[in-house]
Amino acid sequence: MTRTATRRSNSLKEGILNTDHVITDEELVELARRAGEGDLRPFDSLVERHRGKVLANCRYLTRAAADSEDLAQEVFLKAFFALNRYEGRSSFTTWLHRIKINHCLNYIEKQKRRQVVDVEDPALTHRKEFQVASRAHQLAEASSDRERIVLILDSLAETLRVPLVLRDADGASYQEIADQLQIGLSAVKMRIKRAREEFRSRWLDAFGDTVPR
Hints:
This protein is mainly α and 213 residues long. The chain has a domain at 120-213: Orthogonal Bundle (Arc Repressor Mutant, subunit A), CATH 1.10.10.10. It is 74% helix and 0% strand. It is built from 10 helices and no strands. α3 (41-62) crosses α4.
């Protein structure tokens, strides 16, 4: 490491210790790159800062409550090993967001391939009936807006739920969503419009009160 790089690294470390300095994600990335072997403190700080949103969005995108913790951990693992490829042309948040979306979409595709079964299978029909009854019970029991939002999102078709979450939870642009889902811009706008309408309709049917913004 050169003297200039050493001085820069030391100044960043001093910034962490200085409670008056709010260290940026990009500064933490640089510290994580320069950290000695086994020193994960800078990256752990990034994880702590972004874990809540990544975990929630993995849950919203995939409907996989049981797997969302593992999915979020895998997203951060991928980010850690790709840190040297982060060029800073976009914010760290945007870069991490892309990793998360790709990972969740890959998960959804794998789950779809596993669920290719005979639609006439009586066991499948029974399972679907059970799921409908279970969801109705969950809607009746849900007390917080967060629980209700998750249940309504879970009830939406994947083609509506995924672009809606990317737009309204992640704040992705229509063009970014079109690129991620590999569909046209007009299709993205139409799906999000339909998803919002469907969400509102199902919310009012289930709870009969004001739809959260």
